[in-house]
Amino acid sequence: MIVAFSVTPLGVGEDVGEYVADAVRVVRESGLPNRTDAMFTSIEGEWDEVMDVVRRAVAAVEARAPRVSLVLKADIRPGVTDGLTSKVETVERHLAE
């Protein structure tokens, strides 16, 4: 499964980069395939391991912020691996045609 999620601290002002970095650090240390862009972090793995990483990423932000917003989107497709790469490669292949 692939989960794209965004963790946003609330009540800490406009500059939230250091809080978001706490969440991304948890994802990167998990060892699961992941990507971070300007809006979301995507992570790939089995349900329990991915959701545990999301929970810990939220907890890392929650430890420093009075309130946390979580947006999550999941692609649950058993048997598919390397979806983070293969999905993008498919689109790029079509764009190159």
UniProtKB/TrEMBL annotation:
SUPFAM superfamilies: MTH1187/YkoF-like. Residues 3-92 form the Thiamine-binding protein domain. Pfam families: Thiamine_BP. Belongs to the UPF0045 family. This is MTH1187 family thiamine-binding protein.
